[in-house]
Amino acid sequence: MKSLRLMLRGAIEPAVGVCFVLLWVMSEVGRFDPRNVAAAVLPFVMIGIAIALSRFAPLLALAALGVLLLAQLVVPLLRFSEMSFPAYLGFGIVAAVLGASANHRERQVSLPLVGAYGIVIALFFTIPALSPTLERSVAVSWGASDSEPWKNIALMFLVFVGVSVACWYIGFGRRARLERNRSEAERLAIAADLSAAESELRFASEHDRIAQDVHDIMAHSLSVIVAQADGARYLGDQRPEGTNESLAAIARSARESLVEVRMLIDSLGTESEGHSHPTLDGLGALLERMRSAGLTVSHTVFGDAGVLTAGQQLAVYRIVQESLTNALKHAGASAVATVVFDWRGPGLALTISSRGEKTQPAEQSPQRGLRGMRERARLAGGWLAAGFDDDEPGRYVVTGFVPRADAIIGNASPATTEAGEGAS
Q: Which end of the chain is more exposed for a tag (fewer CB within 10 A), N or C?
């Protein structure tokens, strides 16, 4: 269908050119001089050829019109009579098509030539010596004896040049309107693509957020549950009374995880801010859960606590939670961890170190957890690094920094503030 439409559109100018020649020849057939029929028909044929070529070969169309005017200047038999003079309107058709379809360079050439052709046609129309009779002009039979003929000639020049240029600009205006409509359609299509891409990005971001939250919640809780279950199994025969404590810790950890997962699921139906938002106030309970699971944890704080946004507190909580969970899973039964908070600067510098019987190679470290910690620190406006201590084999260290909220505002860093809020 599209190719057919293009073929039909491409056939318009040739069809108009053929019709132009046929109509003019039929209208003038009774007035042709039988001795000079070819000379009388040739000007109409030249204009028809120019119309047919105007879209596909604009420069050839202009050349055909220029050759016709030059030939009419030299050969009086080729000039139009008073009845056939309106055939010069074919020049206007060519000018309109050139303005509408020619490229930028062709338009730059065609506009001045169209104006020049209008001047030549005005000469044929007003100068008696350039008329077919060589005595009286085509325009209302002005002669050499007419008073002040140059005023009338100047008026005709303005009319013919104005009509020629106006035809060119009519075509150019149509082209501009079509290009504007095409640009608007492309803009709307791009806007639709951007909207779809934005929706996909929001979906991907929400997917990653959910995956990260589920990982943070379940990895921690299941690690505690596994550690308590292994301890209960180990102590079942030797210390039966310790089984009840382990089972209670398992039940408490599972119940807390269930609550957080329910909050996360509830948040999916409303806004992302509805999911679980632990703060630094809950850090003590987290450390107690880890201790009850068998991890020896110490917590040291230097300096007075500064102000962190809710998103920054969530980031710090999740970083500590992930680090201790990894220590519980990978450092073995005698795992020892140390959490150090240092507020003696423009923010919170935190260090979580752990060591134990087992040593995990760096390439086997939990990639999602490590990426999640780094991303949370980045969104909170800070940074995070993790790796094994070169000076003490088997010791794994997580270090990070989160700037205080008041320090961010004081430094006028809106991008960092937004990042900190976005960590939630």
A: N
